[in-house]
Automatic annotation (TrEMBL):
It catalyses: D-ribulose 5-phosphate = D-xylulose 5-phosphate. Its EC number is 5.1.3.1. One of its GO terms (cellular component) is cytoplasm. It comes from Lacipirellula limnantheis. Substrate binds at S20, H78, D184, G185, G186, G206, S207. Belongs to the ribulose-phosphate 3-epimerase family. GO terms for biological process: pentose catabolic process; pentose-phosphate shunt. One of its GO terms (molecular function) is metal ion binding. Catalyzes the reversible epimerization of D-ribulose 5-phosphate to D-xylulose 5-phosphate. This is Ribulose-phosphate 3-epimerase. It comes from the Bacteria. The active site is at D47, D184. Keywords: Carbohydrate metabolism, Cobalt, Isomerase, Manganese, Metal-binding, Zinc. Its cofactor is Fe(2+); a divalent metal cation; Zn(2+); Mn(2+).
Length: 232
């Protein structure tokens, strides 16, 4: 799907709840992807961790490619890796529509963001809770999306850090609706409306979907409804 079309579709209300597949049943990956798609997911989030930039290892290009084979949904790949420039082409070739690199992983993200765009994918920059938005000011014109982490990356089920909300508000003030804003970490029924009220349009959710006792469709519908209340 062309980059501009993806961005336009993701900007359409209601806010987009992205199931984070890190917590799905990888023994039944294709079935899990089809299940969340049938439940109403509008995009999917994949976490690639290298055990270097973050103290955990997840999966790489084969899993991204496997997900791409069973869905046409936009795939948002969050690269928690120490040398993102070395892997962006492989991630895009595997099927990523949105490529998110970390500001903390490179001295200058701009060449990487430019390259992602040149490949037809959406360029996204993530910042950890301690990183101020001033650190990415020069790169913002090359960003289609900014991901504000509300936990330190690397592990799921952490407590939500509200500093991310301040960053979302500041980015919204700086760029208005020209920049997609995403939040990841501790997003659930108790926090999701705060996130959208602060400006988030993309909401990465793991435990509140995959560890819930409710069916996926019920969890997604509830989270989407609550997210929409933050925009009213």
């Amino acid at each position: 799907m062309p980059r501009r079309r993806i961005l336009d579709e993701l900007r359409n209300p209601p806010p987009v709840v992205l199931p984070s597949l890190l917590l799905c049943d990888f023994g039944n990956l294709a079935a899990e992807v089809r299940a969340v798609e049938a439940a109403g997911a509008r995009a999917l989030h994949l976490d690639v961790m290298d055990g270097n930039f973050v103290p955990n290892i997840t999966y790489g290009m084969p899993i991204v490619a496997a997900v791409r084979r069973v869905t046409d949904l936009p795939i948002d790949v969050h690269m928690m890796v120490a040398k993102p420039a070395a892997f962006v082409d492989e991630i895009i070739d595997a099927g990523a529509d949105i490529v998110t690199i970390h500001a903390e992983a490179t001295d200058d993200p701009r060449p990487i963001l430019e390259h992602v765009r040149s490949r037809g994918a959406c360029a996204s920059l993530a910042i950890n809770p301690p990183t101020p938005i001033e650190a990415i000011a020069d790169a913002l014109p090359l960003c289609d999306m900014v991901l504000c982490m509300s936990v330190m990356p690397g592990f799921g089920a952490q407590e939500f850090e509200s500093v991310a909300l301040d960053k979302l508000r500041a980015l919204k003030s700086l760029r208005g609706d020209s920049l997609l804003l995403e939040i990841d970490g501790g997003v659930n029924a108790q926090t999701v409306a705060q996130c959208t009220a602060a400006g988030a349009q993309m909401l990465v959710v793991g435990s509140a979907i995959f560890k819930s006792q409710k069916p996926y469709a019920e969890s997604l519908a509830e989270l989407t409804r609550l997210a929409a209340t933050g925009t009213q």
